Amino acid sequence: MTTWQKARTARDARIDAGAKVAKGKIVETGDVTRLLEAVIRPGDRVCLEGDNQKQADLLSAALLAVDISKVNNLHMVQSGVVLPEHLDLFDRGVAKKLDYAYSGPQSARIATMLFGGKIELGAIHTYLELFARYFIDLTPHVALIAAVSADRDGNLYTGPNTEDTPTVVEATSFKDGIVIAQVNEIVDKLPRVDIPGDRVHFVVKSDKPFFVEPLFTRDPAAITEGQILTAMMAIKGIYAPYGVRRLNHGIGFSTAAIELLLPTFGEKLGLRGKIASQFALNPHPALIPAIESGWVEQIHSFGSEVGMDDYIRARSDVYFTGPDGSLRSNRAFCQVAGLYACDMFIGSTLQIDLKGNSSTITTSRIAGFGGAPNMGSDPRGRRHPSEPWLQAGREADPDSTPALRRGRKLVVQIGETFGEKNVPLFVEKLDAIALAEKLKLDLAPVMIYGDDITHIITEEGIANLLLCRDAREREQAIRGVAGYTDVGRGRDKQFVQSLRERGVIRRPEDLGIDPLDADRSLLAARSIKDLVRWSGGLYAPPSKFRNW
Amino acid sequence: MSVAHVDRQLPGETRAASSWYEASARERVRLLLDAGSFQEFIGPEARETSPHLRVFDLPEQFDDGIIVGCGKLDGSPVFVAAQEGRFMGGAFGEVHGAKLTGLLRAARDVKSAPVLLLLDTGGVRLQEANAGELAIAEIMRAVIEARSAGVKVIGLIGGRSGCYGGGGLIAGCCSALVVSEQGRIAVSGPEVIETNRGVEEFDSRDRALVWRTMGGKSRWLIGGADAFADDTVGDFRKAALKLLSSTADFGLDTLKAEQSRLEERLQSFGECPDALDIWRTEGVSDPRSIPALPADQFIALGDKIRRTSRDAR
Amino acid sequence: MEDLTFRHTTLKRASGLKPTAIIGVVASGNLEVLVERVMPDAECLLEIRTAAEGFGDVWEAVVADFVERYSPGGLKFSINDGGARPDTVSLRLAQAARLMQEDDR
């Protein structure tokens, strides 16, 4: 007779094996490695919750300590490769194969290990792709997750940094997998239930709170005049003419400058209520002045930010909060929101080529994609109209039948022509291509494809690629804002001038902006302390950002 | 002839409301003094640059990171010196030091005009170590000579580089100090303490700890500075004017009073492991609230509990 | 350190009466520009000491664009550069030229 419940039987066997080191669902800290040895089988697909921000650090350490005769050759399927332990697993032979999305702090080491053959790479994904594959062909057998607190039934409160947890648990638990949670504390009554207890099989209390890095705090003190200039151009040259209200911001200093110019420069232009009112965005401290000045109606967040809890709680009209009052973030939903419900993405990158392809990969660093390609791409499945989307579609294809014309999402790259250490932003060939050759990848890791990009902003001006009609125009439009880089100096000056006359390229003076007015006094906040003041003392920045 | 600098009304900001911390040394001098009154000595066009930096293949600055000259404050003549905290951390080198020594000696000889020292320094320039150390000694002597001749020397501290190393020693010689929250005054900096005594003794990356130990608020509360200014040029100007009119003359009695002030301070706070304990001992009921207090509320609180000793310093 | 000198003829004399001006500081990624009105009316001179070696052609391009745009006849620009990016250099040069246009106080 055919058996149709093999996986369920196997899961029950794993739970029984694990139950021997547990009291109910609760496992003592000292017994975690034994628990993992009991429930994980060689070759299992394991999601070791490494999100963009929160990390199941206790469970990573415990997994690293397993007896490798019992647990080995695991296939790690996790969005973030962030902690050193995540890669130590491969050095020790606990894990063998990796599918992931983002590796910020480990980007140099992961490159070395990929070159050295220490890691068998599945693919580098965007968040949404990896989440999607959790439900199709990369479903975890075991998920090791992090939450703020649990009750004795295994109900979990994930708090402001809910992030990836609901997605990981959904895929694992409903497909006969095992879910093990580390929590900061075990309580009688949770503030709210983020994950129902019947999806959680074991809970372990960690001696210290899970690790969260303040990734989205940009100190206004470090914003330069060049960044202020590009931010002024973005507001006056893109936000205003398209009337962009629904958008996502990258996490660099240029977009922080935009956030800090809304209540000053933006206000003077009379744009409040007309632009930048709904965001798919983490709780950026730099947005506090705009929120306090009445610019922002609503923000949905991928994750949270260290120090923003009390502020978010007090501004529930703006943020998504639970019945307990604290932020509820959700990376999967927010990525979908950024992809389908936003009319613009604006962010920075490290390299842009002559076709507009951009990448944050260099030959010695493989940072992965995270969510930027989801934000920074034109969703072909979008069907609802909005004025910015329709206008961009008109510019790209003025002659087609309006009722049949797709709109376009505005995908804007903003940056200075030279980055850190005078490294040029514009290149003839992306380092990503050299990397793909070296690793024999089928695809070069391109963050945003040139055909998705609509605008490039540098201190030299704005290139509107929607208005370019062929490859030559596109290339010269890019060269025309590439400043004094080799790419920029390689421009055809007359051609670029003709593009400027057509409005394909717009210089600061074409927008009525004097570069000499780009001054730090335009920033609504010039220090972290200013942000604290704007928040009425509700924002509590981490000590490393303080100068008081 | 004076050298010009960016002079325009900043949007939403008056001269007096300009941030001291954000301003360059030249902007501070220009905005602090009566409009158009500043005259620079040995300005950048004289190109009196460091003779040492070239040897290390390092860039020079035409004024060697310090501006010296004279001008008027509320109609009365003053000498003024301002360090640029962004050029080599405002550090003292041979030329930099000599310009300041010369200014102080001029003040000593002229006798009738006080000196404003806009300190913004990490200490002695490593590349000019011996010359820099000598400069510190000469400046300290010149400060004391000027004060002995009846000249008041007021230090103004609120810049990016704080006031560290030899700068801290010079600050200790001044007739009086104005400090803002951003200002820090110490001889050994956070990293130096951590390197020598370990991270358990002092974690230099814990910036809240750095500020409550060396920052302007703490220094003013325990008498290490005489006036507290909000981070605006206007507030620094007001505080400087007030100190110029209230600071006592200098003599042996001043030094004796200063000695007993310091002895008393050591006695009261010597056992305190953290600034929070010092503030509590000083009578602050909620010391944790101090760092977040706005300047006006902080000054009101400080005025109630600070022990002032106008005859010391 | 690298020394660079650029001499250009200009279409017209820089406006204003100010004899000298200074802007910027020497720091990482920043520079100072000292301007003096000491050249013949149809000439300008730029003397640069830079910490970033090997960028002579970029400087040449930045300076040429600046001269074309502002026609700073009669001015000598002395620059100490801590390795500023070209856009910062352009900004400081423009700021310096604007300062020279102000009336002398």
UniProtKB/TrEMBL annotation, chain A:
Protein name from the UniProt record: Malonate decarboxylase alpha subunit
Lineage of the species this protein comes from: Bacteria, Pseudomonadati, Pseudomonadota, Alphaproteobacteria, Hyphomicrobiales
Molecular function via GO: transferase activity
Region (Disordered): 367-402
InterPro entries: MadA, NagB/RpiA_transferase-like
PANTHER family reported in the protein's UniProt record: ACETATE COA-TRANSFERASE YDIF (PTHR43293), MALONATE DECARBOXYLASE ALPHA SUBUNIT (PTHR43293:SF2)
One Pfam family matching this protein: Mal_decarbox_Al
Species name: Hyphomicrobium facile
Chain segments annotated as coiled-coil in the UniProt record: none
Gene3D superfamilies found in the cross-reference section: Glutaconate Coenzyme A-transferase
SUPFAM superfamilies: NagB/RpiA/CoA transferase-like
Automatic annotation (TrEMBL), chain B:
GO biological process: carbohydrate metabolic process; fatty acid biosynthetic process; malonyl-CoA biosynthetic process
Annotated CoA carboxyltransferase N-terminal domain residues: 1-252
One Gene Ontology cellular component annotation held by this UniProt entry: acetyl-CoA carboxylase complex
GO molecular function: acetyl-CoA carboxylase activity; carboxy-lyase activity; transferase activity
InterPro entries per UniProt: AcCoA_carboxyl_beta, Acetyl_CoA_COase_Trfase_b_su, ClpP/crotonase-like_dom_sf, COA_CT_N, Malonate_beta
PROSITE patterns (UniProt xref): COA_CT_NTER
Key words, A-Z: Transferase
Protein name, per record: Malonate decarboxylase beta subunit
Organism per entry: Hyphomicrobium facile
UniProtKB/TrEMBL annotation, chain C:
Domain of life: Bacteria
Residue spans crossing the bilayer: none
Modified residues (O-(phosphoribosyl dephospho-coenzyme A)serine): S28
Subcellular localization(s) per the UniProt record: Cytoplasm
GO cellular component, one term: cytoplasm
InterPro entries per UniProt: Mal_deCO2ase/Cit_lyase_ACP (IPR023439), Malonate_deCO2ase_dsu (IPR009662)
Keyword annotations from UniProtKB, A to Z: Cytoplasm, Phosphoprotein
Post-translational modification (record): Covalently binds the prosthetic group of malonate decarboxylase.
NCBIfam families: malonate_delta
Protein name (record): Malonate decarboxylase acyl carrier protein
Source organism per UniProt: Hyphomicrobium facile
Source taxonomy: Bacteria, Pseudomonadati, Pseudomonadota, Alphaproteobacteria, Hyphomicrobiales
